[in-house]
């Protein structure tokens, strides 16, 4: 039972035990003196002495605990958080030796150990960086080449989820809904024709023609589908005569998705198997009930990394003037939103972008509250599971540390360019990067499934309300 309590709470209970023990001893001593006193001697002085002693003894224990908490328990929490940062992420968290000055040689020893380990890690990281740079150059050449060929390419895993798409395929998908990895291809094109084509492939065909169509938009494309062994299928869309992107767009892929994750309840799903959408909103004010969204930014996170090339970044017409005080913070003006879509259109785009994903926000009750308030207007329900980086920060760094987005990014060595701070995309990107760095630390702390992590964040409910009800 006691092992489930925090270190600081256990230390506090220890000092409470000291206070109660002292009071019990004083009571026993007084009782002994009272029982041996002459019968004529009144007992009231003994009771008064006991009350005074118990009060002073409790105050002394509390004072000693406060000193112990400030100079031992809190530094140990900070030291353990710093060690976890170094162990599970690429953050160079320096040990605060001044704060840990009463811990003897513990802080210097921990710093020496991590420096020794980091030396070998840095050598490996340098080699990885060189290889990554080489692969990036090859990817850029491949992207440019595929952009020139009038064929759009989409790779599917055995569950018919998108694993790769090129620049031209991105334009095709974007004409229907925001393109995203791990999305089912049937979210963009009618299922019957795709199922029929795959059935013909199963009868022995190595490649068959099909017509991809989207009933909602009325768009159709001539295409071919091929079998890729046991890894899924490839769809090749004929782009002859179709307007193609002028500038090369990054080739978006994640081959880890070729192995489709086992479907299970979200509570039982390992964190590494979840898709996350980190988002942020800029608004006309700070009231969920009275104010409206003027800008939305969102990024997707798969397999522990932000998916480059997949994002939502748009202005939203709030249907009301933006107060000058709000514009001074986020720089969004009435002119910026004059021709922008309303919350109905922008909200539907975000909802599709976040389908089957966990929503992630910093101070989620505010941002998610604004979306839920507009459910009727958007025509959707925001029933997504939610993670709040404020609560995640409190789990990793302790409830008494500051948990603003700036403070969290500072601890995680994340830099938000000044011109992007208090923009929806800038803050959404920072929130996503914070999640990417926090997840391995949380897994290292033993929170490996979504349900286990949510149960832990609920213990910090006095900071913010958990939305997974």
Q: How does this structure look, described?
A:
With 469 residues, this protein is an alpha+beta fold. The chain has 3 domains: 2-116, no CATH class; 149-255, PAS domain (Beta-Lactamase), CATH 3.30.450; 265-460, Nucleotidyltransferase, domain 5, CATH 3.30.420.10. It has 14 helices and 11 strands. The strands form 2 sheets. A 6-stranded antiparallel β-sheet has the order 3-4-5-1-2-6. A 5-stranded mixed β-sheet has the order 9-8-7-10-11, with helices on both faces. β1 (151-156) and β2 form a beta hairpin. α1 (7-36) runs antiparallel to α2, α2 crosses α3 (106-148) and α2 (44-88) packs across α13 (424-444). The chain is elongated. The two termini are 26 Å apart. The mean pLDDT is 82.
